[in-house]
Structures are given as C-alpha cells and as structure tokens.
Amino acid sequence: MSVLVFDLDGTLVSSMEDLVVTLNVVMTAAGHSAIPQDDVAHMVGMGAKVLIQRGLEFNGVDWTDADIEPLFEHFLEHYAANIAVHTRPFVGVVTALEAFRKDGWKLAVCTNKAERLTLPLLTELDLSQYFDAVVGGDTFSVSKPDAEPVHGAISRAGGTVTGSIMIGDSVTDINAARNAGIPVIAVDFGYTPVPVEQLGPDRIISHFDELAGAVAALADTPPRTS
Ligand SMILES: O=C(O)COP(=O)(O)O
Ligand SMILES: [Mg+2]
C-alpha cells in the first residue's frame, strides 16, 4: 500500500501570516525588532526553535540554548492560541485529498512543526479526517531531512516505502525524501530561500490540480536515492 507523505507549512497550508505574527510577538516581547514577512518566509521549515534562532540571528543577537527555551515556550503558548487566524489550506487541497483517498492512496503528514501544534491545526482546518498518520518534528528523536520521520509516517499509515511519494516545499523535504528513498514532488508556492527548480525534485507543481498528474507520472518510477 503506497502513501502520499505531505509536508504541512507551505505545502498543505498557507501558515506564514500566523507564524509571522507569533514570531514577532515573541521577538518584541524579548526586546528585539519585528521581522518582515518576506524574511521570515526564508526561516520556516525546521520547526519553531530554529525559527526563533534564525530570527535572533537576523536581529544580530548571539544566542545560547538557554536563551531559546523561554522564547520557545512563549511561541508555543501564543501560536497555540492563534493557530488558524489566517492559516488556510491552499486552494485545491481538500479536493485533491478526497480524490486520492477515493483512489485508494493512504495519506500522511510529515512536518517539522511540533506534534502538539500540528494536531490542533489539522483539526481546526478540518483536515485531520484525511490522514492515516501525522508525524511532527518531535514525534521521533530526529526530524526531516532525516529519513526516520518519513519512514515513520509511511509505516504508521500502514504503507510501504516502495511506491510512496513525498510532497513538499523546501530543501528539507527534498532531502528527506532522498534519504528515505522515495520520489518527491515540490510545490513552487511554499516557503524556501532557494527556488525549488534549483533543488532537483522529481516533479514541480504550481497548483494542487496538477498533483494527480505528477503522482501518476511518478507512481511507477523507480526511486532515486541521490
Ligand atoms: O518550520 C515549521 O514549523 C514546520 O515546517 P514544515 O511543515 O514545512 O515542515
Ligand atoms: Mg514546508
């Protein structure tokens, strides 16, 4: 049984505005400057702790692990309370997920967002029902681009690595898919400092309407491992 493994932020959902609001609440409360959204878009994809670290570096602040913890706690508290103010599924997501399920695909989420944020966000947006498994950045001891969360998502969804496909928006997802030994489709509307064209995904889509065609084209392609 094959699994479509979806990244979350920048792939299934447009979450940038809510992430920026929370990051800037945290930054300004700690006495640092707010960061413009276009710059934050280059910092998302490795979870909230890395987002905070990159935000501090953007503000020229030297940080230690001890500095990050209270900011992370503040981030979790504020983001959990404001998780879907602006965040919505990208256009065509629900139609595509329904069609894939009808066609017999298992579906999973594999995100670097913490599990305790990921599950409520999916519920809030009425997306939980479509997924056989949800893996967050802290579900396993390692996160994407490591292969383990991708393999974990596939096995928790009841599927096999062979035939499964990753869909993501950043270098982290593309490398995670490569490490996991599965093909990867990149969306070109997500959050990445490097255009996905330069990252060598197996296919690129610009709208969820194009996903079925890309999946069909890859379904019988042997996996690349480099
Ligand atoms: O950085 C994050 O919060 C998670 O991002 P992802 O869903 O793109 O893995
Ligand atoms: Mg992403």
From TrEMBL:
General function of this protein: Specifically catalyzes the dephosphorylation of 2-phosphoglycolate. Is involved in the dissimilation of the intracellular 2-phosphoglycolate formed during the DNA repair of 3'-phosphoglycolate ends, a major class of DNA lesions induced by oxidative stress.
Cofactor: Mg(2+)
Keywords linked to the UniProt accession: Carbohydrate metabolism, Hydrolase, Magnesium, Metal-binding
SUPFAM superfamilies xref list: HAD-like (SSF56784)
EC numbers: 3.1.3.18
NCBIfam families assigned to the protein according to its UniProt record, in alphabetical order: HAD-SF-IA-v1, PGP_bact
Binding residues annotated for Mg(2+), in chain numbering: D7, D9, D169
Organism domain of life: Bacteria
The keyword Magnesium belongs to this UniProt entry's keyword annotation: yes
Keyword GTP-binding: no
Name recorded for this polypeptide: Phosphoglycolate phosphatase
Broad class of enzyme this protein falls into: hydrolase
Family matches, as Pfam families: HAD_2
Active site: D7 (nucleophile)
Pathways involved: Organic acid metabolism; glycolate biosynthesis; glycolate from 2-phosphoglycolate: step 1/1
Catalytic activity: 2-phosphoglycolate + H2O = glycolate + phosphate
Gene Ontology MF annotations: phosphoglycolate phosphatase activity
Family: Belongs to the HAD-like hydrolase superfamily. CbbY/CbbZ/Gph/YieH family.
